[in-house]
Amino acid sequence: MARAATNRKKLVVTLVAWTIGIVIFFPILWTALTSFKTEAEAVATPPTFLAFHWTLENYTEVQQRSDYFLHFWNSVVISVGSTLLGLLVAVPAAWSMAFVPGKRTRDVLMWMLSTKMLPPVGVLIPIYLLFRDFGLLDSRIGLVIVLTLINLPIIVWMLFTYFREIPGEILEASRMDGAGLRDEILFVLLPMAVPGIASTLLLNIILAWNEAFWTLNLSASQSAPLTAFIASYSSPEGLFYAKLSAASTMAVAPILVLGWFSQKQLVRGLTFGAVK
Amino acid sequence: MKRALSLIGAAVAAFLGSSAQAETLSIATVNNGDMIRMQKLSEHFTKAHPDITLNWVTLEENVLRQRVTTDIAAKGGQYDILTIGTYEVPIWTKQKWLMPLNKLGANYDVEDLLPSIRSGLTTDGTLYAAPFYGESSMVMYRKDLFEKAGLTMPEAPTWAFVSDAARKLTDKKAEVYGICLRGKAGWGENMAFLSAMANSFGASWFDMNWKPQFNTDPWKQTLTTYLGLMKDAGPPGASSNGFNENLALFQSGKCAMWIDATVAASFVSNPAQSKVADKVGYALAPDTGLGKRSNWLWAWNLAIPASSKKGDAAQAFISWATSKDYLDLVAKEEGWANVPPGTRSSLYANAEYRKTAPFADLTLKSIQAADPQHPTVQPVPYTGVQFVAIPEFQGIGTAVGQTFSAALAGQTTADQALQTAQTIATREMTKAGYIK
């Protein structure tokens, strides 16, 4: 009896999970399907699901018109670069907040988070002027710096949460064994926090990859990542949905694949310490 | 350890290092068919000018507008050539943000540019932007449905005729709607259409003292006509329809009439895209007999930021891209149907073009019928047909567009929407110092 109830519960949970999964994934699937349609079929009513004339012409045209690999490489440099730079700053910051908290640590954490609540457009002009004066406009290094700053609160918060799960006694023991601060962080704390760091890394790469305000506003031709690549195919006057879908599919595919392969680490990291 | 660290440092520096900056012209442009074609054909320009290389930044219209406005206002110097609309040109010229185009060459033939387009780009006799393609708006209608209903579309219809025909042609069961019009909120979306429509009803955005006019009878007539027509003869969910949505509806045979940009004519008459390609007729945008038709005027233009250090090279490119020779080049490479329309008189005198584009005459007449210097029946202190060429208009236009779109969706009445529009516009114009 109990087993039947459990099985039924399992079935319901599975069904609900699949439904939610499909609903969330459907727009991406639809974009991918549209990318194989002709422009006329892309806007046909009623829309066709699979029974249409499959074509690769959109991909060919997108490839001819844009330098996909330049945008792709810019996206890689900006997202990986900003995440690594962010980790470099955030690991010591989170260490001090987790293991040597001061009176105002909580306030500092809240203040850091509050910077995420500011609408980015509010600081566009000051940042633009700074970038102009430092010669950082349309440079990858400029975008790495700005995305590092934007994602830093999230990185610090995530690492802080993971570090707090690690018993301070272990670090104390390493200190008693004669480890200095650097060794303590590098050889004791970091190996223990690997799942947390991995998920922070992946999540921030995804966030930086998808960031479409600063990357569009501070880049022109040399440093433009895939967000600018997609924006170049959107048009309010002309039905280019199939080409836009092809560009979008090409832009999200790498990060989708990365997410697919690293989902174990992502889930493990995000639930790290949740079951104790 | 130190060595390893310095190696990592060097690797990171190489990884992050930005690409070498070449001496090139950076061109910011919108994503539409004509611009993409120009990008493709630009190798003809670089062949003739081997010392100049071109860097293209193509963006969606709204993103581009935000991007280039930020850059030019902050003197960022990211672009040497900008693609801007007729809305920006007079405002930016006044701000002294644009370089005068006085080195376009002896063969450029400025006189050949269509006067109504040219006038919007000229200040004190100097051209500050060169038109790449121009458009007005007109009626596109289904000849077969009109014939079936025993109706004949005049070349210059009135709103009374269009309204009556739209109601007669509507067959909601068969999903055929009498008229498709823009409803999506935005200063360049529903307000482009409604501002132009209001002109034909004798309405205007402001009077000579910059006082908003939404509480006047002509605006009430405009909005009630629009809402009534869309309720009786428009497609469902029209409040989210813009150019693209209506284009898709018209092409799939769901609209008997569509009033929108003249550039749409080349899409709806293209059999590769449109199910109704051979059944489309064209007419001028409707009027009410007051002397102004409800058609707008827009052009995408190429301009150079005043701070550009590559002015000569940039002018050479603009001269090439907006010349008569460029039109001939497109015709040779891609056929006359693909020539960017609406900028030069000589194109409309060309027999081959007229043969290929059956809508050429009406496009020209529509462009000529719009006068951005005198857009309304009553005198107004502003220029611009479907917009008001002041910096505050984008914000006010979009806010008013949202209230009208809400009225179309049935959330408010016409009176409430007009009242809200009047309040918004008065508040913003007072804040901006136009109303003392």
TrEMBL record, chain A:
The chain crosses the membrane at residues 12-33, 72-96, 108-129, 141-163, 184-209, 240-261. Pfam families: BPD_transp_1 (PF00528). Residues 72-262 form the ABC transmembrane type-1 domain. It is a multi-pass membrane protein. It is found in: Cell membrane. InterPro entries: BP-dep_ABC_trans_perm (IPR050901), MetI-like (IPR000515), MetI-like_sf (IPR035906). Keywords: Cell membrane, Membrane, Transmembrane, Transmembrane helix, Transport. Belongs to the binding-protein-dependent transport system permease family. PANTHER family: INNER MEMBRANE ABC TRANSPORTER PERMEASE PROTEIN YCJP, MALTOSE TRANSPORT SYSTEM PERMEASE-RELATED. This is Carbohydrate ABC transporter permease. It comes from Azospirillum endophyticum. The lineage of its organism: Bacteria, Pseudomonadati, Pseudomonadota, Alphaproteobacteria, Rhodospirillales.
Automatic annotation (TrEMBL), chain B:
Its main location: periplasm. Coiled coil: none annotated. It is found in: Periplasm. The keyword Signal applies. Gene3D superfamilies: Periplasmic binding protein-like II (3.40.190.10). Keywords: Signal. Residues 1-22 form the signal peptide. Belongs to the bacterial solute-binding protein 1 family. This is Sugar ABC transporter substrate-binding protein.
